[in-house]
Structure formats: C-alpha cells, structure tokens
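Illustration 12: Phosphopantetheine adenylyltransferase.
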Amino acid sequence: MCQKAIYPGTFDPVTYGHIDVIKRAVRLFGQVVVAVAQNPSKNTLFSIKERVSLLREALKDVAGVEVVAFSGLFVTFARRQKAAIVIRGLRMLSDFEYEFQMALTNRKLDDSIETIFLMPSESYSYVSSKLLKEAGSLGADLGVFVPSCVEKALKKKFKAQ
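Figure caption equivalent — predicted structure in token form:
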C-alpha cells in the first residue's frame, strides 16, 4: 500500500459511482490523485475549474485524495506525478472495450504504467454522467446519484440554459 495511483476522467459531473471507485482506490493504494481532464474535443457542461471545485467539495472528507486538473497526454502527466498506477472504472461490459484499448495504448506509450480496473458498487453500476445530465436537463431529481453540491450546480446550469 501507500503507492500513488491516478484516477483520470472528465468528471462532468462527478457521481457517486466515481466517488465509490475513488474510495476503493484509496483503500488499495493509500494515495489517489483524481486527475480532471481538460479535453478541448469534449463539450463539457462544467468548466475545468468548476469540475475541480465540485470534486474537491465532494471529496473533502476522504483522506488520501488530491484533485488536480491536467491537459495533454496522460502518460506525461503520470510521469510528472511519479505514479505508475492508473485507475479506471468499469461499470458495464460495454465500458471494457474502450478502457482496454486505452490501457494498451498507455502501456505502449509507457510500459511502466499499469492500469487497474475497479468496479463501483452494483448500486452505481448503471450511473453515467451523460445520462444524468440528460435527466437533469429534463428536471429529474438527481440527489440519489450525485452529492448535493453537484446537484445544486446542475440545477443552476440548467436554469441558466
């Protein structure tokens, strides 16, 4: 234990499924860097600054977690962080193909970085940020899927649109 792992993602927005994976990773590795990706090709609802802020608020009581933004090639970021473990969440079988391709690509770019797949609790296995944004835009109550700070931020975004 006490080895640094990185859990990268867009987190637009962070869900209880993400938080469940983060807590599992902390139990396994002691220290987890939650790396919020700034990807210009993705049209995110929340800015990078908002996503980092929401994650920090949602994870403020979880020891061993650091939330940072990053852009560019993940393996370069991982090297700068001196981390050799990347955490990826697998909710459903449909996630596996993409995650497997990404893990193999990262390995080809830097074979010192290992990918570990973690599954969230079955109660979160169907939750996706994309689906929640769609449901939230239609007025759904999202309190069972996301922390209250995220639910408030979503309501504010959808009210402004």
